Please model this.
Amino acid sequence: MKFLKILLLSLFLTCLLLAPVLAAGNAGKGKILFNDPTAFGGRIACSTCHPGGRGLEKAGSKSEWITPAGRTGTLEEAINLCIVNANRGHAIDVRSEQMIDMVAYIKSIGKLTEK
Model:
């Protein structure tokens, strides 16, 4: 029984330690997508309007967004709004790996500017 407790605690601690590393991997992939004008079938990259993430420093810390239509939305919806309207691309599934990567990168922008 003691062995099982130690094993479970070790697994839990390992997950806690690996979470930031895995998130950094997602942010890296998100940065690549952010700078790729063809990533979502669009005409321009996100970085065209937001070079180096400029203007998105607080984007990852917001809990809600107000869309141009005046309704509350999520960060994922805001990303798709830009992809479709500004980039002239195709919206991506909010549960997709691409969206997870984009959200991780946008959240990392704010963390970089806090230092």
